[in-house]
Amino acid sequence: MTSILGTGITEGLLLKPVTYPWAYELYNQAVANTWFPHEVQLGEDLSDFGRMTDDERHALTHLMSYFNPNELLVNKALAFGVYPYVNSAECHLYLAKQMWEEANHCMAFEYVLETFPIDRAAAYESHISVPSMAAKEQFEVNFIRRMTEQTLDISTVEGKQDFVRNLVAYNVILEGIWFYSGFMVALSFRQRNLLRNFGSLIDWIVRDESLHLKFGINLILTVLDENPEVGTEEFAEEIRGMILKAVEMEEAYNRDLLPNGILGMNADYINQYVKYLADRRLEELGFESEYNVTNPAKWMATANDTLQLVNFFESINTSYEVNARAK
Questions:
Q1: Which of 34, 184, 191, 244 is deepest in the core (most CB within 10 A)?
Q2: Are 236 and 312 contacting, i.e. CB atoms less than 8 angstroms apart?
């Protein structure tokens, strides 16, 4: 039986025939979506930045403080926790493009820091000095460390479960909930006719991240489909628990992001959106929703619901479709 998991150096050296068409299609779509940060004229937003309140500028700085190091953290998760454990050539192609995209996102956020009068030293320090931000980073590091500092035997049920845990931690939680929460706040400025070019930059990042989310969940479901012994009831409950814990951590982070609120938005608003996102991710993995809240940011709907519903225990990787272009 074909397996997407493995560590053979001589395996996965031939692209055709393609074994996992969804990965090949996502690679081609990612290449078609290629962009570069300086194509956006952020300097035109400087007057907006000057008119923003202290709380608004704090929110933007807070977002940059979080996004910047965590784009590179995702690359570590990919390079050490995913790429070495898949055999598929088309998956390797996509992962290589995704790693370049994460680097490009890092450069995009550096471009923001270079353009706006943001205290770079303070922004760099926050992911260590702000407890709610540091806690989220440590959550991710704990899973990635298992992949990098210990021996992972991908042939065992335990090793495969560790592989899935890492995917859930970085892809479903970090990219699919925490990043999307930040994207919503970043794009909310444009809803008020502020930072329109910055909003375009975030649009391009969201377009990339929607493909990252599709790839990661496809990979999780393929592993579960090919290795049904992995998806035990106990393991499923553990995965669900990880996602619920992540919501609690994000709620604390957002209270630091908007301690006083800004026009049209406060921490409660963002946290309702976080719970809405978490329900979508739970459903995409075949779980029941937990929070059953409405989407307070209807204008983000096209970015939220990019995936078809599947079952965590009866996953069929062919159930996913890749659109011609991501929204």
A1: 184
A2: yes
| Cα-based distances in Å from 281 to 101, 139, 217 | 22, 18, 9
Residue 102 assigned ligand-binding role: yes
* H/E run at residue 224: helix 196-226
The response to whether 44 counts as a known ligand-binding position is no
Tell me the per-residue pLDDT of 209-250, one tens digit each, with 9 for 90 and over.
999 999 999 999 999 999 999 989 999 999 999 999 999 999
**Is 92 within any annotated ligand binding site?**
no
pLDDT at res. 304: 46
Residue in 222, 217, 285 with CA at minimum distance from that of residue 88? 222
Residue 248 annotated as binding site: no
- Distance separating alpha carbons of residues 273 and 317, to the nearest angstrom: 28
105 is in an annotated binding site: yes
Q: Alpha carbon 207 to chain centroid distance? A: 11
- Give the span between the Cα atoms of 295 and 303, in whole angstroms: 12
- The maximal CA–CA distance of the chain, rounded, in angstroms, is 61
Length of the chain: 327
Residues annotated as catalytic (active site), given as ranges: 111
Q: What is the pLDDT of residues 41-94, one digit of tens each?
A: 998 899 999 999 988 888 888 888 888 777 888 888 898 889 999 989 999 999
pTM: 0.87
Q: What are the residue ranges spanned by the domains of the chain?
A: 42-319
Contact 231, 117 (CB under 8 A): no
**Best CA proximity match to 80, nearest among 137, 151, 27:** 151
